Amino acid sequence: MTDKLTGAAGREYVAEAIRHALRSGDLVPGQRLVENDLAESYGTTRGAVREALQDLAAEEILEIVPRRGARVRAVSVEEAVQITECRSVLEQLCARKAAVRATAEQRAELERIGADMRRAVADGAWDTYSGLNQRLHELVIEASGQEVARRQLERLNGPMVRFQFRLALRPGRPSQSLPQHLAIIDAVVGGDAPAAARAAEAHLDDVIEQLRSSAAAVPAPAPPRLTG
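Request: output the structure for the sequence above.
Response:
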């Protein structure tokens, strides 16, 4: 009998697997998630799946429907815009504080991320760029030392997982967002707090514009399919 992941390890594995399935489009809004199917697909116990689903519901990625189980929560473009407006305020705060508080090691990592982003755009490595984008935002938040903002941003970012991935892969988007990210990096590394806040605000304003402009172009969701 094959051992199954359980406890905290199983819970975290399932939660991350579901996030990945959302980013890749294997899960779609409104799709129902069946504990037995997920446990079999991911090699975990039902208990680990149940706990992961509860965690994702707390993040507002999923919703638990009485007597019907869990399903992927649909997020409208207008809700995504409002979430991004809230993110903008918090990320400006974090960028401002990171410019003052970042360690030498964190500033050096930011510079490496900037160089890697340039290379990823030049090479057309969009998945790599998307990962660097995520790490950049995480590092600025870490460097800020603003734990309350970090917790709030984690909660806000949960429902945005599909929007963020879809926007990151839009044709021409990495080239458009690269200078915005480099402006954040330059300001934080240079210790210019006001410029860091302005760069973060400009970047999130552009994300909001992209969300609104893409609303009419979003295709209808594909029929739900089982995860594998």
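Residues 220-228 have pLDDT under 50 and may be disordered.
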